[in-house]
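Why this split exists: single-chain examples teach little about how molecules sit against one another. For that reason, every record in the complexes split bundles all components of an assembly together and asks for one structure covering all of them. Below is a record exactly as it appears in the raw files.
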Amino acid sequence: MKEKITAQSIRLFEKKGFTETSIQDVVDSLGVTKGTFYYYFSSKEELLMDIHLGYIDGLLLYQEQILKDASKSCKEKLFEIVTMLITSISSQGAAAKIFFREINNLNSEHVELIVQKRDQFRLNIEELIRTGVENGEFRPELDVLIITMAILGITNWSYQWFNPSGRVTDREVAEIFVEMILKGIQVN
Amino acid sequence: MKEKITAQSIRLFEKKGFTETSIQDVVDSLGVTKGTFYYYFSSKEELLMDIHLGYIDGLLLYQEQILKDASKSCKEKLFEIVTMLITSISSQGAAAKIFFREINNLNSEHVELIVQKRDQFRLNIEELIRTGVENGEFRPELDVLIITMAILGITNWSYQWFNPSGRVTDREVAEIFVEMILKGIQVN
Amino acid sequence: MKEKITAQSIRLFEKKGFTETSIQDVVDSLGVTKGTFYYYFSSKEELLMDIHLGYIDGLLLYQEQILKDASKSCKEKLFEIVTMLITSISSQGAAAKIFFREINNLNSEHVELIVQKRDQFRLNIEELIRTGVENGEFRPELDVLIITMAILGITNWSYQWFNPSGRVTDREVAEIFVEMILKGIQVN
Amino acid sequence: MKEKITAQSIRLFEKKGFTETSIQDVVDSLGVTKGTFYYYFSSKEELLMDIHLGYIDGLLLYQEQILKDASKSCKEKLFEIVTMLITSISSQGAAAKIFFREINNLNSEHVELIVQKRDQFRLNIEELIRTGVENGEFRPELDVLIITMAILGITNWSYQWFNPSGRVTDREVAEIFVEMILKGIQVN
DNA sequence: GATGAATGAGCGTTCATTCAT
DNA sequence: TATGAATGAACGCTCATTCAT
């Protein structure tokens, strides 16, 4: 039941927004009562936090697996991380939208925890870029921090537009993105 | 007075969010009463729409000026548009945050209008890239639509992190971004 | 309107208890809406605090007037204070009941303030007894603190049973009380 | 288990109040579940009634024992009853507070029964005073009903302030009270 | 132009109680 | 005996909006 509530909430929060979706909306759509909701969650905010944690923890876990694989180059790892992000947006689009859009509806302690985890994710990419610079894969003059923000912008922004059933698959988008990140768009 | 209300609202909406900011908050912080608000605005949503229009119309206007300058190359125009976006986030940070974050609080007609304008802005960039491909500035195999989304992601995402009083100026960020967009990050 | 709400609330809180009386009950009985209530009071607890302050401040003010009258003996002052308490319970019975019964529904800060005022009222009586002992009106071996509590018990308890329209008037009750306090009940 | 629930409830009801203490609070603090509570009690109100009965029935029983002792004078009996009341507040302080404070949370039938028992307790004291008047121990002009209320006020009020671990013991308080009741406070 | 009293619909949350297991 | 999922009614409170002045 807790999972049913979470799943349904993700759907509704994505469609109507967190604040605009009432607990009543959630439980009505499941044919249960508000009491049931509060049996499983202590507050609406806790539910939102659950959704946030479910999303970011999954990403962090997968990112770590990618990064610790000593057999791959930095370029390959970058490609895999970008792919992972687009894929996650593709497969968990609703949760992703909530994650990027509704963070301000968490209380300050929870915001802090989520921001910490987002920071960790970003720092891991910074580290990857830095390593790539050091081992000669990436250009030495790069401003690692800004470049990392650019890469995150490219990928994260796709929650705003990427359509899993559109012309281009998630993997193809990732390939285009990485091609651009590595080679740029100009003719040499 | 209408402008004072708008300006103050932008500040409050950015800090606390649109839904979490009440009309009472706005008028209290200005030392006037709710009646005054409703003399100038027919609804809270109209105020939000005003803020949205103020932001996007400014961008569109400036974008057009950049694009119609026949003396500049596509690369140069791209640089100017990127700079404009970062600068706008730098100088109108609060309005930018509201623009990207609170669109769902507009009613459906207004959402449609804003989306149309955002689409126009994007289509203009697509057109610019396409022209660059055709005239040999950009690589011919580019997927113009996805690349445009990547560029928008890079720039728009900066509303999430760019700090005008930080280490790097808006212009420097724009330069780093365009350098990356054009040349990529890998060593050739 | 604020006074109408307060007056009606006193009536309802006395009859049904503070917790058992809802804001809905209050506003329904006045033919207004909840919004009106919250236009005048920031919370239900604030209303309760208003009622408490209205009661205790009135008593303290009157008590001071009695005590500062240099022309009266301690016995006379004691009689006037007892009379005042019974009379206040007679004329403001409902507020008195709420005052004695519902203090625990105030928040901790407000409880502290009210307790402080009740303490002040008590300390003033202690001081009166002490003065009476010193000037030979009262017996020298009295335990002033406990005696004060006994006097307060006699008077305050009357909120539980005193009926203004009963056999004995408030003034008569006060006379009986003071007679007993001064002379006791046994035959000498 | 039923006694454990009752004992724990008395502690919680005294600290937080009856209405403010939920069944959940009670069962959580005992490490059991709500179902268990409803196995032993048919309602929260029944539990409160149990507490009331436990307190008043004890007092009535003891009062009867005191009163039927033909070897004691009315003064002595009065002293013993006052002592009993202060002692009960001292030893069962929490239950006493609940008894005096939460009676309004009983349903009307139960209120009636408790009031009846409180009345019986009071009537027994009235009878004692009346006998004392008739046999010459107490002054003949006393208003027995009001005097009884005064005595009850003195003793019952002590649930508001008496501290068993304070400067004065329960027995000493009783002695001071009875001394005052019998002789008054003025110098003859 | 501006006020401020009043509305009314809705929201998040609580909690005593029930009941199948 | 005891559990725990589920209910449903109520509650305190918020807030965008209206409107007579």
